[in-house]
Specification:
The complex is a heterotrimer of chains A (51), B (512) and C (175).
Chain A lengths: L9 H7 L1 H26 L8
Chain B lengths: L7 E3 L6 E3 H32 L8 H34 L8 H23 L17 H30 L9 H32 L7 H12 L1 H22 L6 H14 L16 H8 L1 H27 L8 H4 L7 H23 L5 H4 L3 H29 L8 H27 L22 H34 L12
Antiparallel strand pairs in B: 1-2
Chain C lengths: L15 H27 L13 H15 E5 L2 E4 L6 E7 L2 E3 L1 E5 L4 E7 L4 E6 L3 E5 L5 E5 L5 E7 L11 E7 L1
Parallel strand pairs in C: 2-5, 3-6, 5-11
Antiparallel strand pairs in C: 1-2, 3-4, 6-9, 7-8, 7-10, 10-11
The chains are: A mainly alpha (51), B mainly alpha (512), C alpha/beta (175).
């Protein structure tokens, strides 16, 4: 809200909120890339030695 | 260094406040960056002269050593030091603000400097012939990993200074409303950098302990996953910083005003959210990792970050056109382009950077980054060609163009050798176009990256490439040598101007 | 300008040209994305889909047994192995060769298990230029059917030490 009473778009406020963007920017690749990937490697089966 | 924290001058060109503490920090980081591009460029010359079969200069041990040094100096140190200078510029000068905690910023600088120097020395004395990627189980000395960690911590602290300064500027109301677009873009780069450097810490600290023998085993594939969270994502910092610099160069050369702030900022927000997923590009032909993980990540979540680049690819030329038409260049469809300032270094640097990044680096990146097509290009020279298109033709060339303006604007020195400076982006750009295209073509014929002898003279099982491949390698060498000449001109002009250029009078509004 | 703060209300609709361009870009993004899962169904060449870890020592034992069982000769000190149709094939990357030399039959499907017993290696099949990352501790499982006969070479395209550039392997496909 500014002096003229016209409302600033919520999207504009969201884009100005660097700390919120920062948080989302850290969370998305951490979950989608790092955690998911680490879980796949950790849970992969290990071959037994019977050729 | 001992400047008063509140001492400032007013820029006669932009009317912005330039604080002495910030100016000194920008100076130190930018000058250090140029020193490292000199080291990286010399390493590039040696690598190139060895890969050129007709010359084949270095012995294999020296070749692999210098090949490890080249990206450390040119990809990591040059670019990140310059980016820190750019971040400080974006949060202080562009916002009329003083810098947060200048002493801590100096600490960050020295951490980065000591880290980079340590890594370089360890490589040169032969303690780390492990390539830039240092894939486990290949092992370097503990000091090598320690150097990388120090550098990364320093860079992380510098990002902290950037965010701290944003907070100060906001609290002290040094600007009104939203951040300027360039600073917003640099904020995106800094956010991407934090995730990148955190990934670096997650992987390099255990690896350091492993090199000391404290940790016994690290899974080699897991190392690759997390390493590329650092190694590839740091290139995403470069992309984002480069796009911000494109907008900045547009302002400095033609007075660019974004056509639609919403569109431009949305593209940066898409970068923040999705671009780091592209670390997956390196893992597409790896075992064990599932296709679902590969597809979701390699596509930046349905290509949202590629969409962002497409948006910038329209927004920047469009804004340049609008700015030029406002100046009265309205004849025909293309007068705005033909009458553009081609005779000053910033504009050709912008155009070559946009073109090489988009059409050579970007398109090959998207193609090679699809899951199945990666099989055709993984670890071939096509990859090397791709990322020289993005990071050298794109980022480095944009940063070079910006340097010619930072020197008079921030360091208040006149450029020495303006004709050389103007010719430089053309020489560097054309050299790189020949270099990257030949390299990619050679790669599609199977020429591998990181390889001392593609004639396989010492192999037990004989093998030789199609002669076309050797021809393309030679062309690559010629293009590369041209680019190195351009790089040498850059270093020469930058160093001479910074140290010996005529000092500009306080009110002298002279740009180039 | 892009170096000054924008006007107070900058969240405004995009122009017609901008909207058109963005729409085209989104369609292009969707096509690119869809092609990848689709190729797993309709395409012939995909990276490994079977996750499997294997200890390098175990892998060495299994691949040694494989070589011993199907060995038909030797070439420059490297065993030549001819596995039966449809067999599991073990191709080992090690400093600095690909072990063994394989003799395969055209049109027959083999299940390849490619791994390393020391460092990272890069499987690069020439002249087709098909490349896979070979990681110690992991089994890169690929179903491969040779569709043409002739001699193929495998070079290493991941740095694996001082003699990395001498690492060449061979696959012979017979009719």
């Amino acid at each position: 809200m500014n002096e003229e009473g016209k409302k600033i778009s919520a999207w504009q406020l969201f884009f100005d909120d660097i700390s919120m963007l920062f948080l989302i920017g850290l969370v998305i690749p951490t979950i989608l890339y790092l955690l998911w990937g680490v879980m796949e490697y950790a849970n992969a089966p290990i071959a037994s030695i019977t050729p | 260094m001992a400047a008063n924290a509140l001492e400032f001058r007013t820029c006669p060109i932009t009317g912005k406040k330039v604080y002495a503490t910030a100016q000194n920090l920008i100076w130190a980081n930018a000058v250090t960056a140029v020193v490292f591009i000199l080291v990286g460029g010399l390493a590039a010359l040696l690598v190139l002269l060895t890969r050129w079969p007709a010359v084949h200069l270095l012995s294999p041990d020296l070749f692999y050593r210098i090949l490890t040094l080249h990206p450390i100096a040119a990809l990591v140190a040059w670019i990140i030091f310059f980016e820190v200078a750019g971040l400080y510029f974006g949060c202080t000068v562009l916002l009329n603000s003083r810098i947060a905690a200048p002493k801590v910023a100096w600490l960050a600088y020295f951490l980065m400097l000591v880290g980079a120097a340590l890594v370089a020395v360890e490589i040169l004395i032969g303690n780390a012939d492990v390539m830039f990627t240092s894939y486990i189980p290949l092992q370097a000395s503990p000091l090598y990993y320690l150097g990388v960690i120090l550098f990364a911590v320093g860079a992380l602290v510098a990002c902290g200074i950037f965010f701290g300064t944003l907070a100060i500027a906001k609290a002290e109301k040094t600007y009104e409303g939203s951040l300027p677009l360039v600073t917003f873009g640099l904020s995106a780069a800094a956010i991407i950098a934090v995730w990148t450097l955190a990934s670096g810490a997650i992987i390099y600290i255990p690896t350091f302990l492993w090199s000391l023998g404290v940790i016994k085993n690290i899974d080699a594939a897991m190392y690759r996953l997390i390493f590329w969270g650092f190694g590839h994502a740091s290139q995403q910092i470069n992309v984002t910083a480069m796009v911000s610099v494109w907008y900045l160069l547009g302002v400095l050369t033609v007075g660019l005003k974004p056509v639609n702030e919403k569109v431009c900022r949305s593209a940066f927000v898409l970068y923040i959210f999705f671009i780091n997923l592209a670390s997956e590009h390196h893992l597409l032909t790896d075992p064990t990792l599932s296709p679902a993980h590969k597809i979701a990540n390699t596509s930046y979540f349905i290509y949202m970050a590629a969409l962002a680049s497409m948006i910038h690819a329209l927004a920047i030329p469009m804004a340049v056109e609008v700015a030029q038409r406002k100046k009265g260049y309205t004849k025909g469809i293309f007068e705005w382009l033909t009458k553009a300032p081609w005779g000053e270094p910033g504009f050709p640097a912008l155009v070559f950077s946009l073109f090489i990044f988009g059409f050579i680096g970007g398109i090959t990146g998207i193609v090679n980054g699809t899951e199945q097509l990666s099989i055709k290009s993984h670890n071939t020279w096509a990859m090397t060609g791709h990322f020289h298109g993005t990071v050298v033709g794109g980022t480095t060339l944009a940063f070079m163009g910006l340097t010619y303006y930072l020197i008079p604007l921030v360091f208040r020195r006149e450029i020495i050798g303006k004709k050389w400076a103007t010719a430089q982006p053309y020489i560097y750009g054309i050299g790189l176009i020949i270099f990257t295209l030949s390299m990619i073509a050679a790669g599609t014929l199977g020429v591998p990256r990181r390889h001392w002898d593609i004639t396989f003279a010492d192999s037990i099982i004989p093998f030789s490439f199609d002669p076309t491949a050797i021809l393309l390698v030679t062309l690559t060498a010629l293009g590369g040598l041209t680019a190195i000449v351009g790089g040498a001109i850059y270093v020469g002009v930058a160093v001479l101007s910074v140290f010996f250029g005529r000092k500009l009078a306080p009110n002298e509004a002279k740009l180039i | 300008m892009a170096i000054t703060s924008p006007e107070t209300y900058w969240w405004k609709p995009a122009d017609k040209e901008e909207k058109l361009w963005i729409t085209i870009a989104i369609v292009w993004c969707l096509i690119l994305f869809t092609m990848m899962p689709l190729w797993h169904i309709v395409g012939g060449q995909n990276p490994s889909v079977e996750p499997l870890k294997i200890r390098p020592k175990d892998y060495e034992k299994i691949s040694d047994a494989f070589i011993e069982k199907y060995k038909i000769g030797e070439e420059s000190g490297i065993p030549v192995v001819k596995p039966p149709d449809g067999a599991d094939v073990y191709l080992r990357g090690q400093m600095w060769n690909w072990m063994p030399i394989l003799e395969l039959k055209k049109g027959v499907n083999y299940k390849f298990h490619i791994s390393s017993i020391d460092l990272m290696h890069g499987f690069s099949l020439q002249p087709l230029v098909m490349n896979f990352q070979i990681v110690p501790g992991h089994d890169n499982i690929l179903n491969i059917t040779p569709t043409s006969s002739g001699t193929f070479h495998i070079i290493c395209n991941e740095f694996c030490g001082i003699n990395h550039h001498t690492m060449v392997g061979k696959i012979v496909v017979k009719d």
